[in-house]
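Please go through this chain and its backbone structure tokens and walk me through the local backbone shapes. Keep your notes short.
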Amino acid sequence: GGGDVVDGAPAEFEFEGQAPGLHTLRFHHPYYEAFARCVRVPAGRVEELGDVPVGPRAIIRGTVLDARGRPVTATIRWAARSALRGPGDIPRMMTSTPGGQFELTSVPRGLVQFHVQAPEHALLGKTIDASSGLVEGLVLQLEEGVPVVLRCTGDVLGRQLTIADESGVPLTTTTLGDYAITSRLAAGRYQVWCGVAERVDAIQELVV
């Protein structure tokens, strides 16, 4: 999407005139990891982010397969595993895999969380160790999974619902409205978080 761009930014910089609400801060550099960070801008004051660490980049090459083992066009979102803690931390760096093949040249060097999704398949969450700086021949095979429908009652409308894996890594998040939330998940245990904005007020277990 659009937004302010600071080209050749110094070590310290400031974005002015941003409307209150949720924004995404993206960083790109030819020799460092690319990342996208969710930032909530408060009304009437400056949001100080402090130091934002940026590490060296890694390269990951691989293939995405469908449930029958055939290369499939999918969407991959990724982020440093350590950055995923709450509903606002859903991975925002994204690429597609035409013909199933992909090459990511600016992922974090370390543990990287992949979220992979294709039509009629379950969302795949997988942690990749890219600490060597180069991962080649990675194969990510999707499962068909099963449809999951979550229905909300009137007292939670407008709140944030997040589905996380068993270890607490957020997979998908949405604002609750007067409608059913449909997803497709592989068999396993999940966590369902409910709260306001990035705050989690309740956690329930979901078994698929």
About this structure: Residues 4 and 15 are 8 Å apart (CA to CA).
